[in-house]
C-alpha cells in the first residue's frame, strides 16, 4: 500500500475523531470543557509501546514479558479514556450527549493510533522510526 495514502487517511480519521471531541465540548447545549482532559490519554497511550520497543530485543524471552506489560499499561490507558467521560456524565459534570460524542471521538482516535502503528510500525524502509 502507498504510505502517503495511508498517512492521508490516518490524518483524516484523526481530524474526525478530534471533531467529535470538540463537538462534545463546544456545542452550546453542552458548553463544558472537562472532556478535553481525554487528550492526555491520547498522548500517553503510545508511551508504553515506545518504552517496550526501546528496552526489549526480539531475541530473548524477557522482551515478550516487557511487551506484554506494555500491552497491559496501554489497555489500562485506553479503558481509562473511555471510562473518564462516563464518570463525568454519571456525576452530571457533563451531559450524556457530550459523553456519547467524546466516546465516539475516543473510538476513532484510538483506531487511528492503532492504524498508525500497523502501517508505520513494521520496521521496514518507511517506518515511524525514521521520522
TrEMBL record:
What is this protein's gene name?
Answer: Leprot
The record's keywords, sorted A to Z, are: Endosome, Golgi apparatus, Membrane, Transmembrane, Transmembrane helix
> What's the protein here called?
Leptin receptor gene-related protein
What family is reported? Belongs to the OB-RGRP/VPS55 family.
Q: Where are the transmembrane segments?
A: 6-25, 32-51, 71-89, 101-121
Name the InterPro entries for this protein. Answer: Vps55/LEPROT
How would you describe this protein's topology in the membrane?
A: Multi-pass membrane protein
Q: Record's PANTHER family?
A: LEPTIN RECEPTOR GENE-RELATED PROTEIN, LEPTIN RECEPTOR-RELATED
User: Main localisation, per the record?
Assistant: membrane
* Protein location: Endosome membrane; Golgi apparatus membrane
